[in-house]
Amino acid sequence: MAGIVLLERRLAAADTIIFVDLPLWMHFWLAAERQISAARGEDRSDPLEGCDQLAVTRRLFELIWRVDQDLKPRLQAMLERRPATAAYHHLTTMAELDAFGRS
User: Fold this and answer.
1) CA 59/CA 65 separation, integer angstroms
2) CB of 4 within 8 A of CB of 73?
3) What percent of the chain clears pLDDT 70, i.e. is strictly above it?
4) Are 83 and 12 in contact, with CB atoms under 8 Å apart?
5) What is the mean pLDDT of residues 65-92?
6) Any bridge partners for residue 90, and if so which?
7) What dihedral do alpha carbons 98, 25, 46, 13 form, nearest 10°?
8) DSSP state, 35?
9) What is the rounded distance in angstroms from the CA atom of residue 82 to the CA atom of residue 78?
10) Residues 82, 17: contact at Cβ < 8 Å?
11) Tens digits of per-residue pLDDT, 12-30?
């Protein structure tokens, strides 16, 4: 619950909000690609020191599911009440995400 309160405070204070709202299957796909790369021994572009990427696969997938099912609806309700002064970007496709990253 403390995390939700903190998120509400951050949203209220934000001047820019970027909501990356990809379909659930895409989150699973991206996570699977990352895990396959780890299994092949490929280096990540953003390695986490001391993190065994393969050991966290099941927990990662469970977290993705829990966020989509439990937290995302709460986040969407918070975003509906976001400050009118905040710039808001709702990205729902990889193309939008890539374009936003290039801008």
Assistant:
1) 10
2) no
3) 84
4) yes
5) 92
6) 19
7) 70
8) H
9) 6
10) yes
11) 899 999 999 999 999 999 8
Rounded to two decimals, what is the model's pTM? Answer: 0.73
Residues 6+ apart with CB under 8 A from 64: 24, 27, 28, 31
> In the numeric block, which tokens belong to residue 43?
């280096």
User: 14: helix, coil or strand?
Assistant: coil
Q: Is the pLDDT of residue 65 over 90?
A: yes
Give me the helices (H) in 1-103, please. 2-13, 24-39, 57-66, 72-80, 94-102
Residue 21, both tokens: 């709202």
**Is beta strand 16-20 parallel, antiparallel or unpaired with respect to 87-91?**
parallel
